[in-house]
């Protein structure tokens, strides 16, 4: 079960605090396992409050010097980190596939995607502009400065072990903030490898730390700290709500990227092949384990049967297996709990009248492998209409009118992504404007990139990541009123 790396030192069993690789005070560790085989692939320190507090102090001590460097200088350091990440793309992808399960080509894609945030925010660092406003009386000059918020914290999930980190660290460091990152306990190895490359790129001691271990204890220390001025979290709505409440006493700034329940609407006038391609891309990427995965697929009556036929053929042809094997497009799910959730959503739907169009049976590979599944006859009364499945199951709902589809799509407390497939340009505008989500994909199932503002409305979160808006989340305006 050894991980074959060109740079074996990228596999770490220590955390990064104040530029040093350290274990937990207790000496305890946390095992990291390969979801495809169950084999242990590494272990990381099981840290708690004390180590987190030291990491926060180190970030605070590093802040003045980092903030004082020119944007151009910080950009150069980030640029070097980007280059090193790309240079070690394969090693990082290997670590990722082993601890997370996604197919190796998908992992390589994520590494490039992760690096793109570092590159983008290295560029944006140089474009943090203030404002000069009109004075209200003679001799008055109004200037708005943009300053880094200060010490920031990030808590990230296991489904994108690299990209969810870089899209927080990139803008934070570019803005002149320092950061403490708590990666997901299921996928800390990719994170620590990024830390090795960060040091190599010249990111100074204390500017970026990684702390692994007891999520609740680390989270509490980060939320309760007076020094930490901002928390950026990606994960479940449930934990997001808890963190938000824990941050209330110190009035911390928050960015929250929480659960989704993405509708994908296929209208009668859609190109059926593009719709199938979009459904596959959106629903089955990362075995359905992304927060922007289509969770409810609404299909208009006139195209329904044609779409089902082609979708079933495409889903039936997917290859499930260990992500290291060539040709595999569906890796294992992250753990047994994830499998149970998909199973429950299928059982619930079937008990209320849905039908299996393809899949639905246990996968012969066992473990946490799951056969990609399509259900038809799904309705709003079923659990999948209200909750994220986070697995490779596509539920198809049939609808008659556009108004009905938009109302059904908006019938959820979530509002992250939505997708529509139609060739009618008026409908594209109407429906895009009518959907209560932060993002809409039109005739595409892939919408995430560093250029665009990623984020949700309603209970899917606060703030945006990526794009020129992403760096604003780490800046505070300061208004200076000058009188001659
Ligand atoms: P998921 O259900 O997808 O694993 P979570 O919200 O549980 O999503 O996990 C996302 C991140 O939140 C992970 O890094 C996890 O360790 C962290 N986390 C979970 N519980 C807490 C908590 N009580 N305090 C702080 N972080 C937490």
- Individual helix count: 15
What average pLDDT do the residues reach? 97
How many distinct beta strands?
Answer: 22
Rg from Cα = 23 Å
Domain Aldehyde dehydrogenase: 21-480
Active site: 257
Protein name: Succinate-semialdehyde dehydrogenase (NADP(+))
Organism: Achromobacter aloeverae
Report a brief summary of the structure.
The chain is of the alpha/beta class and 484 residues long. It has helices spanning 49-68, 71-87, 89-100, 104-125, 163-175, 188-201, 215-224, 237-247, 272-284, 301-316, 336-351, 383-386, 402-409, 425-434, 467-472, and strands at residues 15-17, 20-22, 29-33, 40-45, 131-133, 140-148, 151-155, 178-182, 208-210, 228-234, 253-257, 262-266, 294-300, 355-358, 373-376, 393-399, 414-415, 417-421, 439-442, 457-458, 461-462, 475-483. Strands 14-15-16-13-12-18-19 form a seven-stranded mixed β-sheet, with helices on both faces.
């Amino acid at each position: 079960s050894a991980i074959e790396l060109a740079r074996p030192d990228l596999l770490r069993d220590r955390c990064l605090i104040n530029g040093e690789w350290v274990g937990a005070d207790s000496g305890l560790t946390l095992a990291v396992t390969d979801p495809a085989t169950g084999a242990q692939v590494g272990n990381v320190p099981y840290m708690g409050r004390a180590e987190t507090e030291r990491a926060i102090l180190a970030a605070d001590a590093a802040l003045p010097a980092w903030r004082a460097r020119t944007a151009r200088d910080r950009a150069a350091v980030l640029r070097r980190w980007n280059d090193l990440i790309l240079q070690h793309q394969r090693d990082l992808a290997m670590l990722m596939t082993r601890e997370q399960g996604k197919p190796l080509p998908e992992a390589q894609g994520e590494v490039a995607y992760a690096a793109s945030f570092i590159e983008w925010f290295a560029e944006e660092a140089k474009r943090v502009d203030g404002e000069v406003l009109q004075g209200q009386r003679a001799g008055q000059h109004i200037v708005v400065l943009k300053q880094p918020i200060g010490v920031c914290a990030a808590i990230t999930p296991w489904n994108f072990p690299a990209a969810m980190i870089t899209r927080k660290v990139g803008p934070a460091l570019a803005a002149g903030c320092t950061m403490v990152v708590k990666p997901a306990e299921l996928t800390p190895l990719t994170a620590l490898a990024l830390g090795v490359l960060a040091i190599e790129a010249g990111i100074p001691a204390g500017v970026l730390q990684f702390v692994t271990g007891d999520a609740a204890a680390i989270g509490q220390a980060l939320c309760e700290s007076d020094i930490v001025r901002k928390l950026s979290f990606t994960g479940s709505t449930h934990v997001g709500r808890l963190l938000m409440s824990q941050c209330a006493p110190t009035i911390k700034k928050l960015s929250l990227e929480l659960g989704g329940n993405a509708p994908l609407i296929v209208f009668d006038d859609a190109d059926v092949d593009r719709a199938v391609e979009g459904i596959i891309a959106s629903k089955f990427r990362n075995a359905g384990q992304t927060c922007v995965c289509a969770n409810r697929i609404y299909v208009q009556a006139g195209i329904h049967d044609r779409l089902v036929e082609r979708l079933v053929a495409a889903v039936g042809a997917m290859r499930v297996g260990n992500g290291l094997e060539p040709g595999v497009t569906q890796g294992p799910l992250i753990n047994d709990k994830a499998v149970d959730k998909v199973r429950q959503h299928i059982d619930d739907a079937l008990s209320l009248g849905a039908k299996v169009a393809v899949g639905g049976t246990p996968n012969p590979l066992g473990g946490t492998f799951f056969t990609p599944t399509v259900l038809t006859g799904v309705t709003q009364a079923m659990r999948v209409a209200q909750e994220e499945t986070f697995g490779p199951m596509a539920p198809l709902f049939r609808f008659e009118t556009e108004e009905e589809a938009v109302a059904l799509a908006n019938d959820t407390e979530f509002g992250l992504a939505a997708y529509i497939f139609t060739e009618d340009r008026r409908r594209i505008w109407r429906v895009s404007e009518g959907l209560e989500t932060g993002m809409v994909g039109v005739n595409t199932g892939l919408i995430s990139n560093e250029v665009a503002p990623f984020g949700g409305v309603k209970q899917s979160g606060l703030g945006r990541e990526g794009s020129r808006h992403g760096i604003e989340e780490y800046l505070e305006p300061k208004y200076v009123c000058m009188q001659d």
